[in-house]
Amino acid sequence: MKNIVNHNNNCISCTEKSCASKVLSVEHLDVLGSSCTTLEIAKGETILHEGTLTSHVIYLRSGLIKETMKGIDGKEQIFRIIKDKTYLGLSSIFGDKVNHFSYKALSNLSVCHIEIDTFNKLMLDNSEFTYKIMSSMCKDNLHNYDKLLKQAQKKIFGRLADIILYFSEDIFQSTKFTMPLTQQEIANFIGTSRESAARGLSNFRQNKIISLESSNIEILDIDALIQVSRTG
Q1: Which of 119, 142, 157, 164 is deepest in the core (most CB within 10 A)?
Q2: How far apart are CA 77 and CA 189, in angstroms?
């Protein structure tokens, strides 16, 4: 369910600015706010669908999202998990008029829809803003290249160790967290079957590398998990 919070945001006083918007002047923040609509979106909702026309720049103020693309057989491939204070689908916006990814809420979200023309004008008028946006896009691309390389070169245990470390270090900054993905989604993320992902998690638990209760994970032996990641 999507609920509109307001049509005109006060971006000047917003405490959830992106790194890019923090460099904008008061005048530019006022322009940004006048073209922005804030939405509250429930867990499980799809924010953008692959193959649809791009109409707005979407900024994730709070929450957690999965970025996916369908393969030739229609199977979902998860590319990355997106945290708050991130713009969605910028590569589609600048490279094409069609969304190349789908974005689904893994938690309740707060997002801003920003008019594309306004966003583009801000990029033309403010080089530092543009630099921050481009830096973010490059980091995302490098992350995806690194993930694809590891998937191609590592076996299942190594890939599974990578995803646990990814959520621990990059997403939650904790050795104890609730996995927001189902076992099928974990399999889609690391390019394997659900059965293989389940066997890998069971192996980690039996070897006391992690504890696993329902979707709650705690890393018990971080050194062992890192070693599996390196040699997997």
Answers
A1: 164
A2: 6
205 in Cβ contact with 134 (< 8 Å): no
pLDDT given at position 143: 79
- CA distances (Å), origin 40, targets 80, 166, 202: 22, 27, 37
Burial class (CB in 10 A: 0-12, 13-18, 19+), 178: exposed
- The contacts of residue 115 (CB under 8 Å, 6+ apart) are 35, 36, 56, 57
Q: What pLDDT, on a 0 to 100 scale, did the predictor assign at position 168?
A: 96
Cα 25-31-37 angle, rounded to 5 deg: 125
**Sheet order of strands, 109-115 included:** 2-6, 36-41, 109-115, 56-62, 86-88
- pLDDT < 70 positions in the chain: 1-9
Cα separation, 225 vs 217, whole angstroms: 13
Token representation of residue 37? 């609509």
50: tokens are 């692959």
**How far apart, in whole angstroms, are the C-alpha atoms of residue 32 and residue 121?**
10
Q: Are strands 46-48 and 56-62 parallel, antiparallel or unpaired?
A: unpaired
